[in-house]
Amino acid sequence: MEIVGIIIAGLIIGLLGKLVAPGDKDNTPIWLTLLCGIGGVLLGLVVYQAFGGNGSPGVDWVRWAVSIAIAAVLVVLASTLTGRNHGQRHAHR
């Protein structure tokens, strides 16, 4: 059941990461957004714990904020690496 939870959280975190990522990320496919979200959830937990995060009762908002930030970075990287980042590129002559 934990895998299903990570996938659902990954989709939500991936979409939030896509939302807060700078530039035009609208043409990043949903499967890639999902992978970035899952990566954000997993890496977010590792980074959170590495900096002394040990959880809190209830929803741990700091952990989720770290996950969203990491997912946003992953969305930007994925978008750039797949050539789907059509930000404001101009040809220089």
UniProtKB/TrEMBL annotation:
Keywords: Cell membrane, Membrane, Transmembrane, Transmembrane helix. The keyword Membrane applies. The chain crosses the membrane at residues 6-23, 30-51, 63-83. Its main location: membrane. The keyword Transmembrane applies. Signal peptide: none annotated. InterPro entries: Transgly_assoc. It is a multi-pass membrane protein. It is found in: Cell membrane. Belongs to the UPF0410 family. This is GlsB/YeaQ/YmgE family stress response membrane protein. It comes from Nocardioides oceani.
